[in-house]
What we know:
The protein is an alpha/beta fold. It has helices at residues 28-36, 56-70, 89-100, 135-140, 148-153, 156-159, 180-191, 216-242; strands at 7-13, 40-44, 77-87, 115-119, 167-172, 197-202. Strands 2-1-3-4-5-6 form a six-stranded parallel β-sheet, sandwiched between helices. α2 (56-70) crosses α3.
Amino acid sequence: PAGGDRYPAVIAIHGGAWRFGDKGEVFAPHHRYLASLGYVVFDIQYRLSHECKWPHMLDDVCAAVDWVQHYAAAYQIDPTRVALLGRSAGGHLALLAAYRRSTAQPDDHRWPLAGVLALYAPTDLRLWAAIDDSEVIWLMGGTPAQQPSAYIDASPVEQARGGLPPTFIAQGYRDDLVSPAHAELLHNKLSSTDTPSVTVRVPWSRHGFDAFLSGMGSQMIQYDIDRFLAWCLYREERSADEQ
């Protein structure tokens, strides 16, 4: 570990429009890179929308967080220094899991998350085109008009408030799948609270711009990811050293 005798951990959540994808796919090199920096990386899976409807995939992510913190000693990690990292639909799930856990107490091996990183993530599902056979219909099982309260529950922008884990938002501004409006809505909501947050805007970049670790998009954003993780997972030690 860079400091102390326990490692910090990163739980990675894959994308795929809640309908496709699996752990250990295209971003495995990114996870190995983070592991090389001294983070224990857990690459997790969740049930997809052809297997269940909302909110069961979020339940799976929350269960994975519980598992990681419960078995922290077995993996030499500090359960109070765990961050979520998600891309696209995975970023959406990461935000909601982190925000819902912000009031957790350290009983039964449950602690709040130390930070959350969401790259090109949907933050307001009501902005998604709810047409037949669309990803959001597969996820929610109905339209916003049919299930207004469920869409509110499933939209991170509606959960944004003070006292949440530090939040990292990254968005490509040529993304034609998840509009930059999603990032800006969450950015504006968090900016009016005491929740630490940062938004990185990547011009001319499309959805999944960081898919290749050696590519330009990934090289542009990885520096910011590294700095954010170091800040939110080691800031208490830094503060203690400064004192």
